[in-house]
Amino acid sequence: MKIFSIICCVSILFSFSAFCSDHVKEGKSVFLYKAKGRRDPFVPLIGNAPLPVHPGEKEDIRFQGIARDNKGNRVAIINNEIYAVGEGEPGEFSVVEITDMKVVLDKDGKRVEKKLYDFEM
């Protein structure tokens, strides 16, 4: 029975290592999410409640989240699109700074701060 358990563990280990070899690049784990044709991961699965809009905020710029690109740099998810610092929509906004909890945008020459949450963590 011990031999059978050892054989099972070794086979699981080899299966897992074969799976991981496709998803590891230069010792770092790589995850690529291709959003084309998929649902927005920030929209609730149950019900059709829209994302909350902060008081006084129009829905023209909807800040949805923060992630990291394949180089480890922060990116902001705004209006279902991914933006790095220096990127944006011409005539609308450009991303100035991204932290763990907020993004700072330049909109019409003014700095606009969008927080991920309404409360302090």
What does this protein structure show overall?
- This protein has a domain of 78 residues: SH3 type barrels, CATH 2.30.30.
- The N and C termini lie far apart (51 Å).
- The chain is built from 1 helix and 9 strands; from the N terminus they run H-E-E-E-E-E-E-E-E-E.
- The strands form 3 sheets. The protein has a 4-stranded antiparallel sheet with strand order 6-7-8-9, with no helix packed on it. The chain has a 3-stranded antiparallel sheet with strand order 3-4-5, with no helix packed on it. Strands 1-2 form a two-stranded antiparallel ribbon.
- It is α+β, with helices and mostly antiparallel strands and 121 residues long.
- The longest helix has 20 residues.
- It is elongated and about 70 Å long.
